[in-house]
Amino acid sequence: MSSSTPPASPLWPDGAGALPPNPLPSDHTLPFWRTELHELDTHRSTPDLPATCDILIIGSGFSGAATAYHLVESYGDESLPSIVMVEAREACSGATARNGGHVKPIVYFAFPRQAAIYGSKIANEIAEFQLQHVLAVKDLVEKEKIDCDFQLTRACDVFIDQEYADKFTAAFEEIKASGATCIRQVQYTGPRDAEQISGVKGAKCCFTFPAAHLWPYKLVMHLLSLVVAKGVNLQTQTPVTSVAETQDAAGLWAVNTPRGTIMAKKVVFATNAYTGYIAPQYTDRIVPCRGICSRIVCPGRAPHLPNSYSLRAGPSNSDYFVSRADGSIVVGGAKPYVSVRKELWYNVVDDSKIVEPARQHFDGYMQRNFRGWEETGAHVDKIWSGVQGYTTDLASHIGEVPGKQGQFIIAGFNGHGMPEILLTSKALATMVKDGKTYEETGLPMVFKTTQERLDDARNHIALG
Q1: What pLDDT shows up at residue 358?
Q2: What's the confidence (pLDDT) of residue 8?
């Protein structure tokens, strides 16, 4: 286990010592996205866990499925190596199946924080990389004919607090002045027209930019069906309990599960919030943070909302949602209720329970916030929790695990995996298959997992 201990967090002056590994809960809340289960949901390609494999992927969410997809694609007509994917619970039952359905680059909003840590050039690089994913996911959906309710749209970030609106209006102008190219795709609407454009009561300003939304579980399960058909061995309900500290004499990694040990030449940790449990050097660098999401249905007619949305009322006070073609709204956040007590969300992997103070936030949500929804009868249909992997330096961890030849990681997406995973997994697949260095992949260098990052004791995590 990592011996380093983070100092006092900017959120909590008393600090938060080294975080203990945390196992998966035995049960979990039911998200809307898992109400139409795929035939592979509890699939095991073989009755027994294989004793050995060339490549072992731990995790069957978007990261694991996309990595497997790109690996299989890269081999083409070549003979496929033995690839095994293990999943602790059901297929795609973690964060991917519990999110808000967005493919949403954060563009301008995270720019000030990232620029303060890494500089404007890197902040722009991250934003541009995320923007690429909107069309990259669209291209994948069209290429593979994936039925996942994909919709190309625009995100509309609406500020409903004047002081907060002023802060980001000024930040928007500063980003433009810096020459950042990402900001060209962002449109600002000021106080005169913000309420009319957004439909949000009391809107002070809004920012719109390219985005998409989809049914994430269906996207991932389609990818899994493609790779399983090509020979990938999927083993659900097979939690990894530990990974050997060193390779054996044959250069294999022993990966232990309750169903036996599998010896793998290469191991990919696509485990996001749960990474530290089996790769302890990440225990206090990728922190599990629990969130809440819900589905709101409307029995009557309601105004059509053409965009996806975030409502921002201040630091640690925001919501996000998508408007689905079936008329329902998937909305998450409730940040004032979640963030008020650290123990409710920070270093919490239990998605079997709802953050109870937040439940009330979604009752009457549309009626309170949107024009024309007052008499619609919109109400909460489902509510669930999910666990995200936040990194203490706010950058994802991608690449070969430091000091562990043949181990790779794709994790720690800070609640924004959907606009980062598809292309990072494609690059990671070339590292796993062809031995490419991280530098040769062309990924933003800030995402490279390094010993220096693991040794960095600063903690920038905040629920914003």
Answers
A1: 84
A2: 30
407 close to 273: Cβ distance less than 8 angstroms? no
Separation of alpha carbons 259 and 328, rounded Å = 41
73 and 51 in one domain?
yes
> What local confidence, expressed as pLDDT, does residue 338 receive?
84
Residues 269 and 294 in one domain: no
Is 309 found in the same domain as 416? no
Same domain as 75, residue 176: no
Print the SS3 string covering 345-406.
CECCCCCCCCCHHHHHHHCCHHHHHECCCCCCCCEEEEEEEEEEEEECCCCCEEEECCCCCC
Domain tally for the chain?
Answer: 2
The answer on 336 and 233 residing in a single domain is: no
Handedness of CA 74, 77, 80, 86 (dihedral sign): positive
* Helix, strand, coil fractions of the chain, as percent rounded to 5: 30, 25, 45
- One domain for residues 235 and 295: no
Query: Are 209 and 329 found together in one domain?
Result: yes
Answer yes or no: is pLDDT of 464 > 50: no
- How far CA 268 is from CA of 75, 181, 203, in Å, comes to 17, 33, 44
Distance in angstroms (rounded) separating the CA atoms of residues 414 and 391: 6
Domain end position, chosen among 391, 414, 438 = 391
CB atoms within 10 A of CB 358: 25
Q: What is the CATH number of the domain that holds 445?
A: 3.50.50.60
Q: Which residue, among 209, 270, 291, 231, has the nearest Cα to 422 in the 3D structure?
A: 270
* Amino acid letter, residue 131: L
What is the value of pTM for the model shown?
0.94
pLDDT at 18 over 70: no
Q: Which domain holds residue 170?
A: 151-213+288-391
Q: Is residue 265 part of a domain?
A: yes
Q: In this model, does residue 10 exceed pLDDT 80?
A: no
Candidates 350, 314, 316, 362; CA nearest to 336 is 316
Average confidence (pLDDT) over 252-262:
98
Give yes or no for a contact between 61 and 217, defined as CB atoms under 8 angstroms apart. no
CB 428 within 8 A of CB 398: yes
- The candidate with the shortest Cα–Cα distance to 106, out of 207, 220, 217, is 207
Angle at 400 between CA 399 and CA 403, to 5 degrees: 145
Instruction: Tell me, yes or no, whether 65 lies in a domain.
Output: yes
Same domain, 312 and 224: no
DSSP β-ladder status, 52-58 and 242-243 = unpaired
